[in-house]
Amino acid sequence: MPATTRTTLRRGLAAAAALPLLIGALASCGYGSDAKNDEKKVAAEGKKLSADTVRLGYFPNLTHATALIGVKDGLIQKELGGTVLQPQTFNAGPSEIEALNGGSLDIGFIGPSPSINAYVKSKGTNLRIISGSASGGVKLVVNPDKIKTLDDLKGKRIATPQKGNTQDVALLNWIAEKGWKVDPESGKGDVSVVRTDNKVTPDAFKSGSIDGAWVPEPTASKLVSQGGKVLLDETTLWPDKKFVITNIIVSQKFLTEHPDVVEAVLTGTVKTNEWINANPDKAKAAANAALKSLGGKALDAKVIDPAWPSIAITNDPLAATLKTQSEWAVKAQLIKQPELSGIYDLKLLNKVLKAAGEPEVSDAGLGVK
Question: Are 175 and 334 a contacting pair, CB within 8 Å?
């Protein structure tokens, strides 16, 4: 992971608008239903940029910590000056993509699978990935009474958040590499892949209707708090133990019309990431405080303490890993071979990083020409 920017953060972070808590939010994609607008707007000060407002979407979720903290503590708004940051929360990756396509959202934090799906379905016309945000934070947690080794997964019921989502694809690929067979549509086979919304996965695990789950944080740590055991951390399957779990995307129309606003948002996210990585304990507390203020309940220490360090906050989109994830989905017969050329536009991010004295990040050959 490239080093985070070392620009000293200015003190006095302004409080930002509160957002509704997503209970049991997913890490990379997040699946559920509605999106909600925050009726309050962050106090904007200074010169307005080329847009009056910028509408920012994300999931109130630990793997979206950049947004949680960057919005709440005012780091993003500070860079926008008189342009007002208008945050919006989502329960579902498809809902966020729909908002982006429909023109009610400008920039969003989202996982790799919905990014790929939306880009391919629109034939490359509706979004660009402009930055990374988080890596890791995905684990296979099992009932230790039923499963003691990885070979014991055969014949068991293992949950993933949704058919074709990032964790589902990873599990199907792992199963295939074991030489086992699973029908990708039904989930039936040598391992029963049970597509279960993360907000009900803990209850399913507790009742014994599933034997384990390949899930993101904080769901994985919730299962551990119920007596589960981490049998595999997905980071161990990746080179350098890094893989994309959250990207930042933008509407191509908004990027074309308001590059100054997009650059300001990226400057804010880079500074937020700097603070998070320089202050991990304070950042963990800040993220949990945000969740409490948004939904009335913070994550229990036995959940957030093991979950937080397994998530790496990064500006690097880890483009090569997104390419690998798409290849896994093709191999699992969940999608046809996608054309991903042009899905990344990292020019503004690399401009921000260069100004901060940081190395550029790569688009793995998938950037705009």
Answer: no
